[in-house]
Amino acid sequence: MTAWFGALPVLVVAGLVCGLPGWVAGRLLGLRGLPLLGLAGPLGVAVTGVGAVVTELVGLSWTLPVVALTVGVGWVLAALVGLLLRRAFAAVSGGDADGRRLTAWGWVASALGLVAVSVPAMWGMGRPDGLPNQPDTLFHLNTIRLVLETGDGSSLHAGALHSPAGTGFYPAAFHDLVTVVVRLTGTDVLTAANAVALVAAAAIWPTGCVLLARQVHGAARLPLVVSALVAASFSSFPFWMMGYGVLWPNLLGYAMVPAALACALAVLGLGDAMGRVRGLVAGLAVLAGTALAHPNALVAALLLAFVVLAWPLTAWVRRSGRAHPVLASLAVLGYAAVPAFWAVGPYLTPVLASVAAPNVYREMTPARAVGEALLASPRSWPAQWTVSVLVVAGLVVLLRQRRARWTAPVLGVLVGLYVVSVSYPGRLGGAITGYWYNNPPRLAALLPIIGVVLATAALVAGTRRLQRTRLGRRGWPAALAVGLVFVVLTSGNYLADNAQRVRDYYQPTKRTDSLLTAREARSLEELARSIPRDGVVAADPWNGTSLLYALTGREVLFASEKTRITPDRILLADRLDEAATDPAVCAAAERADVRYVVTGGSPFHEDRHGSRTFDGVDGVPDATGFERVTAVGPFTLYRLLPCRTSG
C-alpha cells in the first residue's frame, strides 16, 4: 500500500481530469449542490469523449492544447444552454434547493465512499503500475499507446487494432482520459490507466450512488452516508470489473449509470433534487458520455429508465385514459413494443445481430442462478449474506412507498437478465442478453446499482426505528450503532473479499495466470533499447510480449491475441519462422514491415482458452533466417534477415 503514496499526484490529476470539466460544465448549466456533485464525473467523461470525436472530425490531434480547447468549447456550450434554461424556464433557475448543509453531508458521504472503495481496490492491485492479468489488457493498453502516438482519440476509430481496415468504432472515453493523464503527468501508461480506473470506481460510482440516494430517499443526511458506504459492499461491482476482462471501459460506463438513473427520476417526477428540464439536459449529456464509455452501460441506463417509466405512465393512463383514450392506447402500445423489439431486434438489424449471437453457455440451473444473483455471489463466490438480506428487506421497505415501487421491477429485470445469461442457451437467450455479449460478469455487475438503493433503504429504516426508541433518541448514536453492527457483520464491509476480487487478477498466485510479471515488464523495457523505432516487432501476445508497444512505443504486429485479422497476419502468426524458405511468408513480412521478433516468456494459460496460437513467432529460435541480437531476462530479440520474395 505504501507504493501508492508516490502515485498520489497522478491520482489527483486523474480525478481532476475526470471531474473538473464536468464540474464547471454542470455549474454553467445551473446545477448546484448534490446534483452537481453526482454529475460532475459523468459530465466530465461526456465532455472528453465527445470532444475527442469532434476534434478528430475537424482534423485536430488529441494533444493537451486541443484538449483544453475542447473543454473550453464544452463550457461555452454549457453556458449557452444554461442561459437558455434560465430565460425559458425561470422556475428552474437552479440554486442549491437542498441547502449547503445537506450538500456538505453529500461531500462527507462521497469522501467515505472514496475511502471505502479505494482501500480494498489498492490493496488488491498492490502497486500503482500493477497489471491486470487478462487478455483484453493488451488491447486497452496498446490502444492508449496508439492514441498517444497518432493523436486520434476518436471512438469512431479506436477499434483500429482489431479491425482489418485499421479503423472502426470502439468506445474510447476511458482511453482518452488516460492519455490526458499521461501527457499531464509524464507517468507510464499502466499507472495512468489504473489511476483512471480508481477514479471511476472510487469517485464517480459513489457520488452517483449518493445522488441516486437523494432522489429515492429524499433530502436527508443519513441515506447519503449509508449509500456511499454500501456502494463499496458488492464484490461484483466495482471490484470485479477492475480486473476481469479487463473491462475498464465497462467499469467507467457502469459507474455513470446511477447518475443517469437519477436524471431519469428527475425527468419522470420521481425525484426532486433537480428540475425536470435540467434533469433532461444533464441526462442526455450523461448518456452521450456513457455511450462513449461503453455501449453496454448505455443500454443498461436506458433499460433502467424504461422500467421506471412504467410507474408514471401507468398513473397517467389511469388519470387521463378516459379523457384521451387514443393517446392512452398509443402510449401503452408504444411501451409494449419496446420489449418486443428488444427480443426480435437482433434478427432484424445486422448491427444488433453481430452482438446478439446465440448464447452457448448453460452454467447452472435457473434456481441456482437466482440464488447467486440475490446472494451477490456470481459464479459460486461466497455469499454476501448481510448485504443480501438488506437488499430483500429494503425491497419490502420501498414497496410501501408509492414513488419507490419501481425498485421491485428493476431488481426483477436485472436478476432475470443474469439468470438468462447463465441458464438459457440458444437464440432467444442470446437475443435478450446479447446487448451485453451474453457475458454473465457484465450482467452481474449491474445488480449492485439497485442493490445499493435497496440496502440503503433497509439500513435507514432500521436506524430510524431505533431512533424512535429510548435507546436511540439522540439520533446519531443510533446511526453509529447500526453502522457498527453492519461493519461487524460484513467483516469490515467485505474488505478482504473485495480486495481478493481485484487481487485475483493483479496478483495471481499461479504463473500460468500471469500475463506479464513486473520483472518481465522491466525486461521488455530494457530490451526495447536495442530496437529502433522504425519497423515492426512480431511477438506472441499470449506471452505478454505484445505489451512492448504499450510500455515502450515500439510497434508490434499482434497488438492482442485477437489481431489475427488479415491474411498476412494469419500467415505470419502461423509460419513466420519459414520466412527464409517460403517466398510467400517473406513477402508478407515485407508488406507488414516486420524487422524484429521477440520470443520467450511464459504463456498466459497453457490452453490459451482454445484460441489460435502464434506458432510462427514461437518457432523463430529454431529457424534459419533470423539473427539473434540480445536477450534480457526471459526474452530474446531476433532480427529478420533479408529473405526471398519469389521462388
Overview of the structural elements:
The chain has 647 residues and is mainly alpha-helical. The protein has two domains: 3-320 and 349-506, no CATH class; 513-640, Rossmann fold. Helices cover 64% and strands 4% of the residues. It has helices spanning 3-6, 8-29, 33-57, 64-88, 99-125, 136-150, 173-185, 189-217, 221-230, 235-243, 248-267, 276-293, 295-320, 325-348, 350-355, 366-374, 385-399, 407-423, 427-433, 440-444, 447-467, 476-489, 491-506, 518-527, 548-552, 567-575, 583-591, 615-618; strands spanning 536-539, 594-600, 626-632, 635-640.
Helix run count: 28
Terminal CA distance: 60 Å
Report mean pLDDT, rounded to a whole number: 91
Strand content: under 5%
Low-confidence stretches: 91-95
Principal-axes shape call: globular
The main pleated sheet reads as: 4 strands, mixed
Please give the radius of gyration in angstroms.
Answer: 26 Å
What strand line-up does the widest sheet have? 1-2-4-3
Determine the structural class based on helices, strands and strand pairing. Answer: mainly alpha
Percent range of helical residues: 55-70%
Overall tally of structural domains:
2
- According to DSSP, the number of beta strands is 4
Quick tags:
4-stranded mixed β-sheet, Rossmann fold, 28 helices, 2 domains, mainly alpha, 647 residues, globular
Short summary:
The protein is mostly helical and 647 residues long. It has helices at 3-6, 8-29, 33-57, 64-88, 99-125, 136-150, 173-185, 189-217, 221-230, 235-243, 248-267, 276-293, 295-320, 325-348, 350-355, 366-374, 385-399, 407-423, 427-433, 440-444, 447-467, 476-489, 491-506, 518-527, 548-552, 567-575, 583-591, 615-618; strands at 536-539, 594-600, 626-632, 635-640. The chain folds into two domains: 3-320 and 349-506, no CATH class; 513-640, Rossmann fold.
